[in-house]
Write a structure and sequence with these properties.
Elements: H1 7-48, E1 68-70, H2 71-81, E2 83-87, H3 97-110, E3 118-122, E4 135-141, E5 144-150, H4 159-162, H5 169-186, H6 198-222, H7 228-231
Helix pairs in contact: 1-3, 5-6
Length: 239
Amino acid sequence: MLKKTNLREKLDLEKLRVKMSEERLLAEVKTILKRVSDDYNRIETNIIDQKNTLSNSFNHELLQSENIYHIEQIKKVCIDYRLRFLDSKFFKGTIPKEAISKIRELEKEHDTEIQGFKIIAPSKLFKLEDKDDPLLFAPIGNGYFYLIHQWGNDLHPLRKLMMWPFKNMINLIILVLILSYLVTLMIPMGLFSKSSSPAQFGILYFFMFNSIGSIVIFYGFALGKNFNPAIWNSKYYNA
């Protein structure tokens, strides 16, 4: 005769089966999370304590051409906007999790460990946290870099114009000449004599040029400032 079915035993068996499935699933989830956490920690370490890597083993067929930039293109933008292009280990801001995730995805896609990260950012972002827009790169080789992630806010629309005087000495002299002329125009011509003349204007203009020029020179030497082409890839504050 057939043995009667004990519902309690069936329930216990089903409970045990479900529990074993849940434990197996939980163990798999823990393994995946640990692997992700280990990857994040490794990538953050590579960004902070990076090796001097000139290229990475990317699969060039999988790279997006719009994210590839040559060092000369990077240099020009840095000079125009007075930015720096330095190793990520000098960056004192916070690398967002989105950037870490993109690096991890790239590593999985290209089956390689990415190193030698570079960042474009204003000088102050390599000293203090700020809200301007850093760009994270990885070297491809032969002077080319791959843009991985950009975060933060865009630069001020007038930044290029404001940094124009710092591109070279000629631009700075032109700025001082213009400022001296504008300041001279604001001085009443009858302030020093009853009559005004081109000679008097010229003397005042020369005086203003010397005064403003002296201030600019003192400011530059006192704070160790330099022109954009000299600092775009310098790791020194007073370069």
